[in-house]
Amino acid sequence: MPVTVFGSANADLVFPVESLPAPGHTVLGGAWRALPGGKGANQAVAAARDGAAVRFVGAVGRDPMAAIALSALREAGADLSAVAKTEEPTGAACICVDAAGRNQIAVSLGANALARAAGVPPLAPGEVLLMQMEVPPDENAALIRRARAEGALSVLNLAPAAPMEPDALRALHLLVANEHEAAWLAAHLGCASSAAGLHAALGITVAVTLGEAGAEAAGKGGRWHIPAFPVHAVDTSGAGDAWCGVLAAALGRGVPLEPAMRRAAAAAALACTRPGAAGGMPLAAETEALLGAG
User: Fold this and answer.
1) Which of the four, 34, 69, 76, 112, has the lowest number of CB atoms within 10 Å?
2) Is 207 known as a binding-site position?
3) Is 10 annotated in some ligand binding site?
4) Domains and CATH numbers, the chain
5) Where, in this chain's numbering, is ATP bound (predicted)?
6) Is 71 annotated as a binding residue?
């Protein structure tokens, strides 16, 4: 089954620095780079490089930054026919990456704020729909309900954490959050921040990524914990997007959740060993090689 990704596309300005700047401080770094990014585009590239037929739906401006934002999607062979062109500037992110691979990110939504669920073509039964929170939450909510009506499998990565209608969350096939996003959502729902706690509160399958501690999931089919693959991190900025995109690609091929999560963990580990976000997404053969060595 194909994977449709509804989300953001950005031009990322990446600044390598020795240490991340503190409030009120300026740090000098090496040569900056302009790279394709945005959580939606990153995840779409990850899914495409993992072998999925990917359709990306979002919005960009009519400025030179649009070509940068869409470049990795084009190279990966994603269908961009439903990308809207707007008069707002293309979304952009400023990313500082320190010597340990840690990052600090500021994002300007730009045209991403004009992404609309109505621009998503009809979804096929069983098709995977992947979303994030760098587009208007109301548009995600509308699309989740559409996916339910059309028989598609909707996956929402709650990143960055932002309010979402509880009824829309309960209509999801799968919710993915990192530990900080899970804690934010749990505080709003009045439940434990574990995958099991969020599953109990929402009644849907929930996966929580835990960085070096791996990932956990809970749903009607049980509970799972997948360890992380140990690697030397160079840049962690695309790890979560690699995890989500490869998970969606695997689910689209009919892979059960537990082995799909293990594949996602391998891809995320590989993404940490490379600079940049979209450009660091691994190919299917690379992920399979790490899985075979693990």
Assistant:
1) 34
2) no
3) yes
4) 3-9+37-90+111-293 (3.40.1190.20)
5) 178, 209-214, 240-241
6) no
